[in-house]
Design goal:
The complex is a heterodimer of chains A (281) and B (429).
Chain A (H helix, E strand, L loop, with lengths): L21 E6 L5 H7 L5 H7 L1 E5 L11 E7 L5 H12 L1 E7 L1 H5 L11 H8 L23 E3 L6 H13 L10 H8 L4 H5 L15 H4 L16 H10 L4 H8 L7 H11 L2 H6 L1
Parallel strand pairs in A: 1-2, 1-3, 3-4, 4-5
Helix pairs in contact in A: 11-12
Chain B lengths: L2 E6 L9 E8 L2 E9 L6 H4 L8 H6 L6 H16 L5 H32 L4 H7 L1 H22 L8 E2 L2 E2 L5 H26 L13 E4 L10 E4 L4 E2 L4 H4 E5 L6 E5 L2 E2 L5 H8 L5 H9 L12 H21 L17 E8 L2 E9 L5 E7 L1 H17 L7 H13 L5 H4 L11
Antiparallel strand pairs in B: 1-2, 2-3, 4-5, 6-7, 7-8, 9-10, 10-11, 12-13, 13-14
Helix pairs in contact in B: 3-4, 4-5, 4-6, 4-11, 5-6, 6-7, 7-11, 10-11, 12-13
The chains are: A alpha/beta (281), B alpha+beta (429).
């Protein structure tokens, strides 16, 4: 993990083939939702298409163009032996590689296998699990190849996606804040669901980007954008316990779509071992 | 001619990852593999031990194209286990959310994935170079669907506002007013879309399908109902496991479904239309008639017309719900969980989506079972391909491969969905 602040974008990608940068979109283990976000940019899609050559995007086009590509957007996590090879290929043919979403950035919901036994998982789902080629772990792209930028979210936010594409086209770093959802709640004028209603909320440890959506719907944040920069999960856990959350509930709230992002993994494991409950006692 | 192999290495303009291989010898197809290599994600396994309140959010992540369908089938299965039923204005809100997803998902398929086949383009974006207005209309229609989902669910992909028993917060009338405004415009585009796609040139195909879809006494079934088939079968959703079974095939991470032991039934827009078209709203029925659709639709190439008719229906119904909307008194109905099994099914854009959960005494999920539409259609798609390919083996391989890929796209397969479900043969009973 942790190449989010990685390679600085110093050169413009707008230099190749008569000034038209080439975009590729790749899928690994995922739900398709993050790449769909690109097609969901209804007002901007045709403008984006005028600025870049969408050279490889299987979900949208039956004429995949050959590499290399100036910007590759990668959705999904690595879970099969074939995909271990394929991501190396993607890196080789990509000048810039940006991961989109929780699967590509943190392993996704399928990384829950890390806390269990994937053979047993396969046996539950398939009568003949021997036909199923799968890895023991679901890893983020950055665990396999260098990544130039990681865009968070399950799913990603379309405004942030457009910002990332624009930034790479302009040769600058994307402006994507690493602060918590709490900041967005304040900006939006939401009442704090934890203070006002006693609703457990992961907002204090979760990275912004959604626009504080859940609190705006009277719901606690469930962490789908993954951990913010330097979260204080221990302090939050104390508060969540005070609101009546049991240890299994506390473990589960961190083990969803970003379960193996390191700060969330640590938060769930320390809750599980009840270390902090003892420490705080 | 002796041997011939037709390969489509990576299917494009479909959701998820798949490939097709057809082997032929002396004018006969000797092998057909619609291979789904989408990596398995083991949802049914990882749901075990989670709280009974979690399936709506977790199973939404099976598919980014139809998360609402997963949330609705999951909610209803858990609610059935808990002995509650969401009705009245809360049910209307669920319908509204679901109509939004139908509009968004169908329009994506019509304009960006399917229409390019009929007009000879590689993509919707390429099509826009010559038909900018047309594609912009399609995008506006799609946007109206997404905005409807977002108005109720918070965002179009993986909405945050759905929970077992109802919603976290219900929208105000004022929040829905701008959505209605856009839907009125969308309805006009939807009507034009039906006539536009009806004018396409369709290969002459007529399959002898067994259709399966939900049927509801009061509406063109989308959110709930009982199961109906074109063979006259009718059964309650709870009886699903007694009728539908699945088997694994070595070349695919999706399982093949059978209905009462028979392989190859079909779910989806053609099934819904053929079984329930009398319940479409009047303007959708009229548009269907004008487009030349009869009492049923057995040509998969014409499924694009059925999708367009369903989009028009969804726009009309959504508008009616918004017009008569009054805020429900509570956003969700209270309930206590029970240690029992619940079944739920709804009509995802691609067809019937079934969920079953066994809730344990501590309120956790003991067992989960999900049967997505594409898994049910896979065997039938293979049969169709066989019937399509065999009489055309004289065609150049490239041409045949392109035709096969088109034939697959007719079904709007969602491969992301189909790779994640449980084999009913596991010692579950």
């Amino acid at each position: 993990m942790g190449t989010r602040k990685g390679t600085a974008v110093t050169r413009s990608v707008r230099k190749r083939t008569e000034g038209v940068p080439r975009l590729a979109v790749w899928k690994f283990a995922s739900c398709d939702g993050c790449q769909l976000t690109l097609l969901d940019c209804e007002d901007e899609l045709l403008s984006v298409a005028a600025e870049v050559e969408i050279a490889y995007f299987l979900e949208a086009s039956s004429a995949p163009g050959p590499g290399p590509y100036d910007l590759s957007l990668v959705e999904g996590s690595i879970t099969t032996p074939e995909d271990l090879e394929r991501i190396q290929h993607v890196r080789r043919v990509s000048k810039h590689l940006v991961t989109i979403g929780a699967c590509a950035t943190a392993g996704g919901i399928q990384a829950l296998r890390d806390f269990g036994d994937v053979r047993e998982f396969a046996a539950v789902v398939y009568a003949r699990p021997g036909y199923i080629a799968t890895l023991d772990r679901s890893t983020p792209i950055s665990a396999n190849v260098p990544v130039d930028f990681e865009l968070r979210g399950c799913p990603i936010d379309k405004r942030q996606l457009l910002e990332v594409i624009s930034a790479f086209l302009a040769g600058r770093r994307p402006v994507v804040p690493a602060h918590s959802v709490c900041v967005e709640c304040k900006a939006r004028g939401n009442a704090c669901v934890m203070v006002a209603h006693g609703t457990p909320c992961l907002g204090p440890v979760t990275q912004a980007g959604c626009g504080a959506l859940c609190p705006a719907f009277d719901r606690g944040c469930y962490g789908c954008f993954g951990p913010m920069e330097s979260p204080n999960a221990r302090a939050l856990n104390k508060q969540l316990r005070a609101l009546g959350m049991s240890t299994p509930e506390l473990v589960r709230v961190y083990r969803t779509f970003n379960a193996t992002a390191e700060p969330f993994r640590q938060a769930s494991e320390s809750a599980e071992n009840s270390r902090e409950a003892d420490d705080d006692a | 001619m002796t041997h011939k192999t037709i390969k489509v290495g990576s299917l494009s303009r479909v959701e998820g990852e798949g490939a097709l291989t057809v082997h032929a010898r002396d004018g006969r197809v000797t092998g057909m593999e619609l291979r789904i290599y989408e990596p398995p994600r083991f949802f049914e396994a990882l749901l075990r031990g989670r709280s009974h309140t979690e399936p709506p959010d977790i199973t939404a992540r099976i598919c980014g194209i139809c998360p609402v369908a997963y949330q609705m089938s999951a909610c209803q299965a858990v609610e059935a286990a808990c002995g509650i039923e969401v009705s009245g204005p809360l049910r209307d809100l669920r319908l509204l959310l679901y109509y939004g997803e139908w509009i968004e998902s169908h329009t994506l398929h019509i304009y960006l994935l399917h229409a390019p086949d009929f007009l000879g383009y590689e993509s919707g974006v390429a099509m826009a170079a010559d038909h900018r207005d047309l594609v912009e209309h399609g995008l506006a229609l799609k946007k109206a669907g997404n905005e409807l989902v977002a108005a109720i669910g918070g965002r179009p992909i993986h909405p945050v506002n759905v929970k077992v028993g109802g919603f976290y917060r219900v929208p105000t009338r004022a929040e829905l007013a701008p959505v209605a405004e856009r839907l009125r415009h969308a309805r006009d585009i939807a009507r034009e879309t039906v006539s536009w796609v009806a004018g396409f040139d369709f290969p002459d195909v007529d399959h002898d399908y067994t259709f399966l879809a939900l049927r509801h006494p009061d509406e063109y079934a989308i959110l709930s109902g009982s199961i109906a088939t074109s063979t006259g079968e009718a059964f309650a959703v709870e009886e699903w496991p007694a009728h539908v079974t699945e088997a694994q095939v070595p070349y695919s991470t999706a399982l093949h479904a059978r209905l009462d032991g028979e392989i190859g039934y079909l779910v989806g827009p053609m099934a819904r239309y053929s079984l329930n078209s009398a319940q479409l709203c009047e303007s959708a029925r009229q548009a269907a008639a004008d487009a030349g659709l009869g009492a049923d639709c057995r040509n998969p190439f014409r499924s694009i017309i059925v999708r367009a008719v369903e989009v028009l229906h969804a726009c009309e119904k959504a508008l009616r719900i918004i017009e008569s909307y009054t805020e429900p008194e509570t956003p969700a109905i209270p309930f206590e969980y029970r240690a029992t099994t619940g079944h739920g099914a709804s009509e995802a854009p691609r067809g019937t989506l079934y969920h079953r959960y066994r809730v344990d005494i501590d309120g956790s999920i003991a067992e989960a079972d999900i049967v997505p539409p594409t898994a049910q259609n896979q065997a039938r798609m293979e049969t169709d391909l066989l019937q399509l390919v065999e009489p055309r083996l004289h065609l150049p391989t490239d041409e045949l491969a392109a035709l096969c890929e088109r034939a697959i796209r007719n079904y709007d397969p969602c491969i992301s969905c189909s790779a994640h479900f449980l084999d009913l043969h596991v010692d579950a009973q």
